[in-house]
């Protein structure tokens, strides 16, 4: 029963976040909270910081006079959209400025954590059942590494796997970020779709990574690990492995329905070098199990000879079976740690591989973070130094393949990497460098 004029007067004292919240109360409040007069005032105040207003009296008077025409000419909600667009653009610029500083070893932004903190970024998953109902899962556990972040969700109220159709992974940021106000999940937020996974026939169509006494792990590309309770068709946890390369862009610059697409690489043509695109690659490789690091190594000056190009792949040999000086010991026992509200465990003989391959200019060329499982090979080691069982671990996507061979030393109870080979797609190389191999 309160007059609209009185409500508008009250609304004029609200900040932008509160104004957006009150607009969700009912239809009448929504219409009043879209008032151009209130939003033009907020928009104008955001243009002139308080400490400079006293210097800009003439400009301020001009803004107010122009505002009268702007109120009559624009549809309700126009200045609300303009204000939100201005604030989100300034926010994205501020965050992207932080990630311009690159780590010389990994070629990735070295202030990722700071940028995530400034942005208020978090990640959620949305499970959609076959009836169209959505179940939002928040409050993940985060584990940061040199080149990736592992995000783990678990709970006691997961929907039954039989009724689920899709899983969507979103980056979530406050719609109007303000460092003085803590992020509130009930406040206005912006969703950026990172990936969408189909859960129909998950256990039949997905790769099995490993299992322990309680759970079985299934891998979905790219980088998602789903833990299923043994003996039950129910989800125990979901683990996402997110590589830092373009992580912030995908988590912020996309929309709720469309994934962010990075701009294509502009090749720098080299007419002098006949083997342009075949040499001077650098690799940074991490092997970890979410909470523990097994291997962290960097490798320079990787190359491929033209005669080593076969079946549409360039071969980059990182660790040679015959050169034991470059063989790599693994620290600890390989496995992926997991936990829920009640149980925790460790699935052995699998790990998360973070690969960052840089081109000759130091620019990220091929990057991923994904779970990988080991298999016992039928052959035995023929090396004099290592008389043990050989294990293999392979990874493949549209851009290339990774093949790793381990030898298990029973005496010292450790794994040794005796072979590591990358196979990079010639299609990827040709589009990146503008070559024709």
From TrEMBL:
Record keywords: Signal
SUPFAM superfamilies, per the entry: F-box domain (SSF81383)
Signal sequence, renumbered to the chain: 1-16
InterPro entries cross-referenced by the UniProt entry: F-box-like_dom_sf, F-box_dom
Domain of life the protein comes from: Eukaryota
Cellular component GO terms, alphabetical: SCF ubiquitin ligase complex
F-box domain ranges (all copies): 1-42
UniProt keyword annotation of Metal-binding present: no
PANTHER family: F-BOX ONLY PROTEIN 15 (PTHR46731:SF1)
Protein's recorded name: FBX15 protein
Taxonomic source organism: Loxia leucoptera (White-winged crossbill)
Gene: Fbxo15
